[in-house]
Specification:
Structural class: mainly alpha
Number of helices: 10
Distance between the termini: 47 Å
Mean pLDDT: 82
Shape: globular
Low-confidence stretches: 173-179, 191-207, 211-220
Largest sheet: none
Radius of gyration: 20 Å
Order of helices and strands: HHHHHHHHHH
Length: 220
């Protein structure tokens, strides 16, 4: 049973979300055209990415309200594992992401900007998902502290911009695979063979990551 007391608009949004998902579960898909299926997949993915951003907000709120302590949990990770019934690995990834893309507050109440602002905005817009956040956080985390902060700031903007433009949707792809037939008109799956936004130099020499990313031309 869900308690809605005090929820206000949040309860209304959750009810609408439940109804929308239930409707999609029951709707027939056989009558959709191929184009409709592709659009549905894309819109679903965007919604799921935005939902992950909401989850980040809830993690921040839980920590700042000391909910783990109130529920006899030693850490926010344990709190998420018990509350959401997720794995320890999933909880750890969500918390690590929240630390970087969440909007936290100073004890005085002052709002603090996310450590990765471009990444946070891109996820909120539905342009990137948790896997992208994990990848970006991992690459930037390897940059030495001695690197110019301005270069790191520019570097952090490159990957979200590339993903917004539809480049490199699978950065870890081994490369294009042989095709048995030519893609149908309007099929942009060849984009998966676009050179990765993270250069080999970035992977083999973390110390050059910021300069390697910053020297790329940002995608407008």
């Amino acid at each position: 049973m869900h308690s809605t007391a005090g929820f206000g608009g949040v309860a209304d949004h959750l009810s609408a979300l439940d109804a929308a998902v239930d409707g999609l579960l029951d709707d027939g898909l056989s009558g959709l055209s191929d184009t409709d299926i592709v659009e549905t997949l894309q819109r679903m993915e965007m919604s799921l990415r935005k939902a992950a951003a909401v989850g980040t907000r809830l993690i921040v709120e839980s920590v700042e309200r000391s909910l783990p302590d109130k529920h006899d949990c030693s850490t926010i990770n344990t709190f998420l594992i018990q509350t959401l019934r997720i794995s320890a690995a999933d909880a750890a990834r969500r918390v690590a992401a929240a630390k970087k893309v969440g909007t936290w507050h100073h004890p005085t109440g002052e709002q603090l900007p996310p450590d990765l602002p471009a990444t946070a905005t891109a996820q909120r817009d539905g342009a990137i998902g948790p896997d992208h956040v994990h990848e970006i956080r991992g690459v930037l985390g390897k940059i030495p502290r001695s690197v110019d902060p301005a270069a790191v700031e520019v570097a952090e903007q490159i990957r979200p911009q590339a993903l917004r433009a539809g480049r490199d949707p699978q950065p870890n792809s081994p490369g294009p695979r042989p095709r048995r037939r030519s893609p149908t008109p309007g099929n942009n799956c060849s984009a998966t063979s676009t050179p990765t936004a993270v250069s080999p130099t970035t992977r083999t020499a973390p110390g050059n990551a910021a300069s390697a990313w910053a020297n790329r031309t940002p995608i407008s």
